[in-house]
Amino acid sequence: MENGVSSFNQFIHELPVDSDTSSIDYSSGEDDLDGIYPASPSSHGSRTSRTSIHVNRDWHWTDWMAYTFSWILLPARFLLGIPFLLFRLLNIWGSRSSSVPGSPRPMHFHSFRKVHTSKDHVVHCTTDRRRGVIEDLHLAIEIIIEAIFDMFHKAAHCVLSPFEAFRIFIRWFSFPSAGVKDIDDDGLNASVPTATLGGVDPAPTERNLTLHHALNTDARTCQDVITELGYPYEAIHVITADGYVLLLERIPRRDARKAVYLQHGILDSSMGWVSNGIVGSPAFAAFDQGFDVFLGNFRGLVSREHVDKNISSQQYWRYSINEHGTEDIPAMIEKIDEVKTAELKISQPDTETNVEQPYKLCAISHSLGGAGMLMYLITRRIKEKPHRLSRLVLLSPAGFHDDCTFVFTVVAYLFLLLAPFLALFVPAFYIPTRFFRMLLNKLARDFHNYPAVGGLVQTLMSYVVGGDCSNWVGVLGLPHYNMNDMPGVSFRVADHLAQLTRMGKFRMYDYGSKSANMEVYGSPEPLHLGRYYGLIDIPVDLVAGRKDQVIRPSMVKKHYKLMKDSGVDVSYNEFEYAHLDFTFSHHEDLLAYVMSRLLLVEPAPKAPVKSEGSKVEKERTC
User: Fold this and answer.
1) Given 11, 52, 415, 509, which residue has the most CB atoms within 10 angstroms?
2) Spatial separation of the C-alpha atoms in residues 344 and 351, rounded to whole Å
């Protein structure tokens, strides 16, 4: 294993790269540049215009005049071409320096960068056709230069050949155009051979795949990643009690009597559980171990999915962590129970129906998802309602935040100070327009393509969060941050986290007045969840990261100490990882530990099959 990646995972990641690079010619610097990404229609057009100038034909006197005009405009052409010339010289200098004997860098920097890209980020596979801002500027400058001189060339030709210009003008009005075909800029249809894992027939079959690359951005979904890797997929829409529409995604194993529910954290989505490929993702690992896998998504998308299509921004974003734990998670778990019970009843109709659920459900949660899961479990126990869980694995769970970095402390206190004024104008924190979301997507691509820029941004972001060494730049490049949609943070969720930092207690949201709290909780103070840890009746596994500066190990130990003192069956373990490494990085030891905790839960036993004698006896008693 090298850098946390197994040889098998590395082999899988290199397969598409080898097949892709085998058809690329790296004989020149310009070909190298074009081989990194498939050519766009604009680049094809510019290439055609370049080659059309050098076509051999008989020279007319008008061509000589145009040639003279081009020499007169040579200084302007030289000035406009300086940026493009500098960019090309930098590329040539980089390729020459990489080919010096004894240099540790490979012979072809661009091909190395291509392989490195596919190894580091599975979701950036060979179907990724994105360009960054720098590539767009490079292409735009080239197109503008070509367009300007093509315009001068055509203008000179029309002035010096008036009869030909008149014939072209007449032709425009004499022969109407046949129409332009509509092209879908949001996707590219392609046929991909795939095989569904666990299916009856493992032979690969052709499947139509839509590759989302609007404006050269990556807008693939969790469904695209799962199906590209050959796994089955199902989408379930869940409606909460307060009208929010949630997406519960599934890697189905319908006859399984053990299921796992994975819940993401803040500014995340279900993409985090599948972003490391087949070998390194918890969702795929659980499916391969025989689990029916459910991927939950909290409310809080820019698209504002709600039963009320006309809901305002202020109304949609009016929720805190309370609603994650008391509305979102209960709705998704009840839907899981409904689906699993119905499927097992259909698959085994002759079994006796028991009062207990016919399957075992485990949950894995990260960060804010962990706080929401604990809130769900405790409130269900207080209301004496079934929570349907058999085991809980919490990866760096939120809840206690009094021991945090200086930056987080200052931000929390400033936020609480300005909260009464910000609440009037800022319902949530997200990127509001499609243009700026597209810009973020392209900048993330530049951070990845240019290691110096990416390293600088990574260092700055690590300092902002107190030295946490998570792969912040890599996370920004995930497809759920795209121009069409992205997860956001409501004002009340941020306010709730600031309250937890100031109070040093894991409690529910404080609405700001005793009367408001009395209306919601029946007491002037919010519910202190840590005092009710004794109600937890299932095993809990807490996992912390020694390099985690977002939720430090001391805060996870605080959960552990309270649970241990309350008599909960709880375990605690630490790994040498940062906050985002629990989901966005491939670590085999962590993944093996999480799977070992899940496997401690035995699947629900099958109920005895109904016999004919029992049916007759039942009829006699009736």
Assistant:
1) 509
2) 10
**Helices 406-422 and 491-503 meet at what angle, rounded to 10?**
130
Q: Which residues pair with 258 in a beta bridge?
A: 360
Dist. CA 258–CA 362, nearest whole Å: 8
Question: Cβ(200)–Cβ(246) under 8 Å?
Answer: no
What three-state secondary structure class fits 348? coil
Q: Note the pLDDT tens digit of each residue in 69-92.
A: 566 656 666 666 666 666 566 555
What's phi and psi for 490, nearest 5 deg? Answer: -70, 160
Residue with tokens 């010289």: 89
Per-residue pLDDT tens for 367-402? 999 999 999 999 999 999 999 999 999 999 999 999
Listed in sequence order, the residues at least 6 apart from 189 whose beta carbon sits closer than 8 Å to its beta carbon are: 208, 209, 210, 211
Alpha helix (H) residue ranges in 485-586: 491-503, 514-521, 553-565, 581-584
d(CA 293, CA 434): 32
Which candidate, 548, 480, 9, 576, places its Cα nearest to that of 281?
9
Q: Can you spell out the DSSP letters for 262-315?
A: EE--TT--GGGGTTTHHHH-HHHHHHHTTPEEEEE--S-BTT--BSSTT--HHH
Q: What's the predicted TM-score (pTM) here?
A: 0.70
